[in-house]
Amino acid sequence: MTDRDPPRPGDVVPESRLREGGKNASGGDGAGADGIDRRALFRVGLTAAVAAGSVALGLGLRARDGHGRGKTLPKLKDHRVDKVQGALEMAIVRGPDPAANVRRAVEAMGGMGRFVKRGERVVIKPNIGWNRLPEQAANTNPEVVAEVVKLVAAAGASKIWVTDVSVNTPEQCFARSGIEKAAKAAGAIVVRPDAPAFREVDVAGKLLRTADILFPFVEADRVINIPVVKQHGLSGATMAMKNWYGMLGGQRVKLHQNIHLSIVDLASMIKPTLTIMDATRILLANGPTGGSLADVKQMDTIAVSSDEVALDAFGAGLLGLSPTSLGFIVEGMKAGLGTPEWRNLKFEELGG
Amino acid sequence: MFLWLRRCYQAVFLLFFLFLVFASTSQFIRGYDVQWFLEIDPLVTLTTALSSHVLHHTLLWSLPLIVLTLVFGRFFCSWMCPMGVLHHVLGHLGRKRKVLQRVEQNAPRSSHKIKYAVLAVMLGLAAAGSVQIGLLDPIASTWRGLSVSVLPAASNTAYGLYQGERHFQWGTLVTIVFFGALALNFVYPRFYCRVLCPLGAFLGLLSKFSLFRISKDPSKCNECDVCGADCQGAADPQGTVRVTECMVCLNCTKGCKRGGLAYRFLPALKLSKVETDLSRRKWLTAGMAGVAAVPLMRASDGVDPRPNPARIRPPGALDEPDFLAKCLKCDACMKVCPTGGLQPALHEAGLEGFWSPILIPRIGYCEHSCTLCGQVCPTGAITHLKVADKVGEMPAKPPVRLGSAFFDKGRCLPWGYNTECIVCEEVCPTSPKAIYFKVETITARDGTQKTLKFPYVDLDHCTGCGTCENRCPVVDRAGVRVSAANESRTPKSSMSLTGGRI
Fold first, then answer.
1. How far apart are CA B235 and CA B108, in angstroms?
2. Shortest CB distance from B423 goes to which of A253, A286, A292?
3. Average pLDDT taken over every residue of chain A
């Protein structure tokens, strides 16, 4: 017996069904008498409405599914400032106080006011990749980060972000590197790489088409890169250009399959306002993670330039490497990102 | 007025518990003793002391609760227990409307003595060296339910804003057990507390000696039975109050309009019933069953003979038999693990180690300088290491090893596919790096010469932290994987002669 069958004598039928059956029966009688039934009309209307609604919903949902067609991804702005005739192109300062070195180097380059105008939003990108202490030299020196934040704030920036995508657990990297505390105290907004902090952008590189990067790099008017100088097993060294790996979400470990070209792709996508290279302590071995103080060399040096290739060539020298032995420096030069012959730039070396 | 006092205590303790759960992350934990609730749990103290023959110092916190129970009875269940509060509130799910129906629901039942049998089995297991109390202990259960099931679900829904994305292998089982226990309130109010809870049973036994008790003045009773309408423990206030069941919720004192029921100091002994109704024979049988279960379990899934390569224990974990004699499976270590790599074991550690912590490096690796799992472990199953001791300093002081990394040369990109990679070397946190490479020139398929870096593992430096496996770009099963071999907690696992022990 199906649900729709009328009850037969002898069946045990629940009281509720008996009542329901009675109602239906009387309704059917009414239809027979009038020929047209309001209830039937209502049901036709309801069916039509449901059908129309489903078609509309289906079309609407299909419109949302563009298979990527017509979806335009944002491109990063050019964050560079115009060159000033006669101004210094690179400054190298040596001295025992990292913060003072940063101040002197930026001053020599014409002051932070040359790079950051009042009201601009600035993102500062240190290396906060590893769960290490400052003296282990796996991350940018927190004093350097704090000093850069202060200089940018003094130049009148309306918003200062400090951010990075850590390789180890972010909260531990941000805490143990000392950078979160130092940057906050200096007045920056520290952005941790939580899932909602990423935006998809157009890379349009030779290797990489699109990438998820931290939102401050999309929103900021000016970008300041503050890498640390370290040995790196695969690429030879990690300094300014390689530091852009730290913007990326997603499976960035895949980039190692063609590390030099992917470094140059990223460095071509983002055109930083200024790069302040932290060589206060450099990591000579077991990089980029380090861990032992035996791997660390105290250099007490800060180098500033707008030319990342030149800075990387300078940093390679500190690590005892020939710049042209590093694939990404050669590729970066070919891509027109700068010159490894940093001595050909207008530079100044200030001793301490 | 005392009812409101009780509700305040319940709210305060529940909020305090939730605060401790919430604070149990690498970001907020600082020096908080987040495991305080487990440390005051006398059953945790008793079972771990029975099984391991040592008393972990933090568990001395349970002595005050034992003393308080001897004075005030089984008040813990209705005043402090976080799961008790949840059951108290959710008891309304299955609560009948009419007073007399409720009295019927709250009548003593013979099934209520099951919890004493559960307790006896647990004590038997512990006496034979296996701690299983955490599976049913209300505090461990609530901690586990919140940290493995509820909070990850909430956090993942909120874009991982709290502790990031978290996933636990078969965490669904924890969900089913946790919410299942709460749903038992549909059968009748506080089903779990009355029938299953071994901590309630233990505190009930202690209450036999309590100085303060609910007791009834028979001269004022007109046998209206209304006192039983909201009795939390089904302690039979209508008849002779059963102190082992009474949770001192004080509802009966309000229910009795004639003032016949009161919480009194040293009432006449005949006014309360102290028997548990579980016969001595059943007590013994249950206890012996627990004792016998341990060799039976170990005859099937041995602790040692065939260790599972996936049984990678947290840093500082004791040797396996000692570990199982202390680990509660409260999952506190999994909650606090910054990478989320500590996971509840299913079959990896045998039936005995079900839900105990193992590291699954593909989900999260062991952070090089982190010792939080040992910091939160309430029983010392994971010792609280100093960072310097965990990291070690080769060659004088070897590091704490969880296992060792092995290359799967068919899946590794350079070895299997002659593709540049070396991510494992990059992220390897030891110095000198345990993963190193050799540059070799090979002939590619098209006959051209290609120079590549091929990775190797140095056993002496590998700590088995699993960072390499975690970051390996080969999706699903990585090209480099950690197994428990060479873990340092026992010389039996050592693969090399470096340690000088065989």
1. 6
2. A253
3. 88
What's the whole-model pTM score? 0.86
Chain B contact residues (CB < 8 Å to A): 25-27, 159-161, 164-165, 338-339, 367-370, 391, 413, 419-423, 425-433, 437, 453, 467, 471-473
Min Cα separation B160/chain A (Å): 7
Residue B485 belongs to a domain:
yes
The answer to whether residue B359 scores a pLDDT higher than 90 is: yes
Compute the mean pLDDT over every residue in chain B, rounded to the nearest whole number: 92
Q: Residues B155-170: pLDDT tens digits?
A: 999 887 888 889 999 9
Angle A125-B473-A178 (CA atoms, 0-180°, nearest 5)?
Answer: 30
Among chain B residues, CA nearest to A236: B426
Query: Is the separation of the CB atoms in B290 and B364 below 8 Å?
Result: no
What is the C-alpha separation between A159 and A121, in angstroms, rounded?
A: 5
Size of chain A, expressed as the number of residues it contains: 352
Cβ distance A286 to B431 less than 8 Å, yes or no, reads: yes
Residue A69 reports pLDDT greater than 90 = no
Largest CA distance in chain B: 105
Return the axis-axis angle of helices A327-334 and A308-318, rounded to nearest 10°.
160
Residue B442 lies in a domain: yes
**What one-letter code names the amino acid at B92?**
H
Q: Domain count of chain B?
A: 1
b/e per residue, A256-289, with b = 16+ CB within 10 A?
bbbbbbbbbbbbbbbebbbbbbbbbbbbbbbbbb
Following DSSP, what letter does each residue of A136-201 receive, concatenated?
GTSS--HHHHHHHHHHHHHTT-SEEEEE---SS-HHHHHHHTSHHHHHHHHTPEEE---GGGEEEE
**B428 → closest Cβ in A253, A289, A294:** A289
Per CB-CB distance under 8 Å, the chain B contacts of A232 are 426
Q: Could you give the ipTM of this predicted complex?
A: 0.81
Contact A234 B425 (CB under 8 A): yes
* Domains of chain A, residue spans: 90-350
Please name the residue ranges forming H helices in B128-259: 138-144, 151-157, 171-183, 191-195, 198-207, 251-255
| Tokens read off for B428 | 């390897």
* Cα gap B329→B310, rounded to integer Å: 17
pLDDT for B499: 62
Vertex A50 angle, CA A44 and A56, to 5°: 135
Encode pLDDT of A6-46 as tens digits: 555 555 555 544 444 444 444 444 444 556 688 888 989 99
Helix/strand/coil for A55: helix
> What is the torsional sign of CA A343, A345, A346, A351?
negative
Architecture of domain A90-350 in CATH?
3-Layer(aba) Sandwich (3.40)
CA B187 to chain A, closest CA, distance in angstroms equals 27
Query: What confidence score (pLDDT) does residue A84 get?
Result: 86
The CATH number that applies at residue B483 is 3.30.70.20
Residues listed for chain B:
502
B479 in a structural domain: yes
Query: Does B453 reside within a domain?
Result: yes
User: Residue B436: CB partners within 8 Å, gap ≥ 6?
Assistant: B425, B455, B456, B458
User: What share of residues in chain A are helix, strand, coil (percent, to 5)?
Assistant: 45, 20, 35
Domain that holds residue B426: 401-493
Residue A184 pLDDT greater than 90, yes or no:
yes
